[in-house]
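Need tokens for this chain, all 127 residues.
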Amino acid sequence: MSTLKTNIDQASILAFLETHFGQRISSLLPIRGGETSQALSFRLDSKEYVVRINKDRQSFLKDQFAYTHFSSDKIPIPKIVDIGAFDAVYSFCISEKVKGENLDTFDEQTVRKLLPQMISILEAVHH
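Here are the structure tokens for all 127 residues:
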């Protein structure tokens, strides 16, 4: 794990989300991956979301810009629902949860099978 990664206890994150959305939060689970943001998935009513917490609000604003300007069927970028202050030090970003896995969870054979899809996405980004 990165030494830069945010590490806030899950109970504090749940309390924050419940204050933000009300008592309708369920299934709060950590998500692997990432270098700096702490990420957890959660359910709000019947929809699934991801909350990321990090000191760098700018990275979340870049994600929002990317979603607003570049998201398409060919370039899947999760919809940003909210960005704000978690506390005096950290910011949060909540996005809709999309299906998928981190690339580093796959074995070499699976990565090879995914290469054409990854190249297609990179070509769309390039254009």
